[in-house]
Amino acid sequence: MSKTVSPFLNDEYAYALELFLAFTIVDDFDLAKVCADFWCWFTSGLCREVPPQLFEMRIKLHANFLSRLRHVLIGIISQPHDVIFIDQLKVTEKTHGIDIIDLYYIRRETLIYLTRLDEQDMIHNIEEELKRQLGDGFCAVKLSKLCYAIGAISGVLPNDLERLLMGKIVCKLIDFMRYINEELRHIACVTFLSIAMKCRCTFVIWHPTEPGPFLEYMLVNIKGITSKLTQYQHDIVYKAIGYMIMAQQDDSLQRKSLEQLLAIPNHLWREIVKTIQLKQSVLIDLQVLTFLQKVLKTNIAVCESLGTVFHTQIGLIYWDMLAIYRFLSENITKTVARSSLKALDCNIIKKSVETKREILALFSTFVRRCKNSPDLLSCIFPSLLGTVLFDYQENVASAKESLILTLITDIVTVMEPIFSNRVPSILDAILMPTLQIILEDRMVFPEHFLCYFRLLLVLITKWCPIVLQIPDIQLKLTVDSIQWAIQNSLRDIGKIGLDTLKALMIMAAKSPDHVAQPFFRKYYMCIIEHLLAVVMNNNQIYIVGFEPYAEIFCVLFQMCEDSITVPLNDYNSSQSNTEFVFSHIGSCLHRHYDNMTLDQIRLITKGFFNFNADPIRMKGHLKDLLVHIRIHHANDPSDLYLNELETEIMVDEERKSAVCALILITFAYACDIIVHVKSDTDEKFSAQVTASNGKKSDKISYKAEIYLVTLNLQVILDGIGRVTYKVGDDLKPVQKDRQGAICKGECAPL
C-alpha cells in the first residue's frame, strides 16, 4: 500500500489496482478466487484499519476504483450455494461445491464492505444496472446476478435507504412487466411475488415522503400493470398483491382492498352470469368458458395468498359457481350418453371439464386456507358436498374428477367436529364408483387411486369405528381395494396402500371391542396372507422398499399377541391366536415352497413374532425370507446361516420373556399375591395367579403365555422393594420381600 496521503495515488499502486480490476473479470476460477481474497482484504482494511482522521481522505483517493469494483462485483457475483441455474435445461438444482460456496461468501463480504464505505454509490450502481436491463441490454443471467447482489447486501443499508432502494427496485420490476421480452416479464413477476411475500408490511405503511401506501398505487394501476402479461403472470401479480392486503391490520381495509383488487374480474364475472341467466346455452361457447377460467384462476391466486379474508369474495360468487358446475356436469353426462365416450375428445367438452376443475380447485384452495376457521365453511358445506358427490357418483368413469376426492379430503380434514354423521354417505358415494374404475383397469386412473386412498386414510385416522361399521359389502371392497393398491406397480400407490393398511390396523386396535374384534376375526388372516404373497413376489417388494413392509408386519404380529382377543381359528377356539398364526404361516410356507426345510420354516415364522418390536430387524428378517425362497438346492451352504439366525432369535425370546415376567411379578408384588410358574409345552410356560389368602378370584385370576427358550427364570426382589429379573441356570428357592409378598418359581428345564 502507498505510504503517501497526497490527493494523488502512486502510479505503481494505481496500476496494480487496475490490474486487479482487470483480472477480476477474467473467467478463470483460480484467478477469481485470488482476486476475491485480495478485494476482501483490501476493502476490510479500508473499513477497519484506517484512523478516523484519515478515513475520508482514503475513501476519496480510492473512490473511482471502489465504484468500478462495485460495478464489477454486481455483474460477476457467484450464485448462492443452494441454487444453480442451468441455461440449457431451464431447471434449478441443488449443489454443494465447497469452492463455489467459498467464492460466493468472499464476494458477498466484499460487497458488504463496499456498501458500508459508500451506500449512495452502491445504490447508484444497482439503479444503473437495472436501467441497462431495459431495451437491448436485457440479459437474464445479468439480471439474476443483480438479484443475488441485492440479496447479498440485504440488511446492511440503513432502514430508510433500504426501503428507498426496495421501492425503486419494485418500480423497476413494474416497468419490466410492461416490456416486450417474455422472459424479462416472467422474471419480474416472480421476483415481485418473492418481495411481496417477505416485505408485505412495508407496502401497506404510509411513509411521509410518499403520496400514499404502495398498495394503493398497485390497486389503482392494476389494469395497466397487468395489461401485457400472460394469464399465468397476471395471476402471480394478483397473488403478490393478495399478500400485501393480508398485511393490513384493519378488517374493513382488507375487504375494501380485496374488492378493489378484484373489481375487473368481478365485473367480467357478473356480465357472464347475466348472460347465462338469459340464455344457458352460452355455457357451451368456447369463448365464454375461456373467460370463466381466467376469472377462476385469478380468484385461486388471490385465495392462496389471502386465506380466510377471501370469504367475502367466495360469498359473492359461490352460488353462481355451483349453478355453473351443475350445468356443465349435466351437459357432459348428456353429451356422452348421446355420442358415447368419443364426445369427451371434442373441444367444448374438454373446455367444460377444465372449467369444472378450476371451480373445484378454487373450493379446495379456500377450504385448505380456512383450516383454522371451520366455522366459515359450515354455511357452504352441505350444498357443496352434495353437488360434487352427486357429480362423482353419476358421471361416466372417464369424466369423474379426481379433484372431487381431493376437495372432500380437505373438507374432512378441516371440518372434523361436524363430519362424523356423513362418513357412511360419503363412502357410499365414492367407494363403488372409484372401485368400478379400478376394476376396469388399475393402471388407467392412477390419480383417482391416489386421491381415493388419501381420503380413505383421513377417514380411517379420524373415524375408524364408523368406517368399520359400514355394510359388510362396502367394508370388504374397502379392504380389497387396499390390497389391490399394495400390489400396484406404481410406487406412490403401493406406498399409500401400505400406509392406509397400517392406519386401519392401528386405529382398529384402538376401537371398541364390539367393533374391532369382528373385523379382526374376518380380515386379519386374509391380510397377513396377502402381505406375505406380495413380499414373496420378489419384484413387488422392491417397488416400495422393505421399510414400509417391515413396519406393517411389526404392527400385525404385535396385534396378534396383544390386541386380538377373538379366536382366529374357526375350528378350534381353544387354540391361542399366536399358535394358530404360527402354524398357519408355517403351513403356507411349506405348501408353496417345498425346497425350504422345516427348520428354515420354523425359524422364519418365529422371527415374525420375535422381531415385531423392531422394524429394522424385521426388515432384515424379510430379506432373509427372500433369500430362503430363492434357494432351490437342498445342500446349499446357506444353511450354515441358520445357526446365527437361531442365536439371534433366542436372545430376543429371552428379552421378551424377561419383560413379560417382570410385568407379571410386578403385578404380584403390588397385590400381595402368590405366583405359581410351571411349564406347559416345549416352548411355553403358564402362570396362574392366586390371592395370598388361598382364595381364587375371577378379578385377580391371570394367565400369561410367554415364549421362552431359557432354562429357568429367577425372580429377585431388591432391597427397596422393586422387582428385577435375572435369567440363570439354577432354580433358586422361594424369596420373600420386606412386605411379605411371596413369589414361587416352579419351572422344569425346557
CATH architecture of the largest domain: Alpha Horseshoe
Structural class: mainly alpha
**Whole-number tally of structural domains:** 5
CATH superfamily of the largest domain: Leucine-rich Repeat Variant
Count of β-strands:
9
Shape: globular
Q: How many H/I helices?
A: 29
Catalogue the unreliable spans.
1-7, 81-96, 632-637, 659-750
CATH class of the largest domain: Mainly Alpha
**CATH topology name of the largest domain:** Leucine-rich Repeat Variant
Global Rg: 37 Å
Strand content bin: 5-15%
C-alpha termini separation: 90 Å
Helix percent band: 55-70%
- Read across the widest sheet, the strand sequence of neighbours is 3-4-5
pLDDT averaged residue by residue: 77
Structure description:
This protein is mainly alpha-helical and 750 residues long. It has five domains: 11-157, no CATH class; 250-415, Alpha Horseshoe (Leucine-rich Repeat Variant); 420-511; 516-669, Leucine-rich Repeat Variant; 685-740, no CATH class. The protein has 29 helices and nine strands. It has helices at residues 11-24, 29-48, 52-76, 98-117, 119-132, 140-152, 159-177, 182-198, 214-220, 222-225, 231-246, 251-261, 263-278, 286-306, 311-339, 347-369, 381-394, 402-414, 423-440, 446-468, 472-486, 491-510, 513-536, 538-544, 546-562, 577-592, 598-610, 615-630, 641-671, and strands spanning 84-86, 91-93, 673-679, 684-691, 703-707, 712-717, 723-728, 735-736, 742-743. The strands form four sheets. Strands 3-4-5 form a three-stranded antiparallel beta sheet, covered by helices on one side. A two-stranded antiparallel ribbon has the order 1-2. The longest helix has 31 residues, at 641-671. Mean pLDDT is 77; it is low at 1-7, 81-96, 632-637 and 659-750.
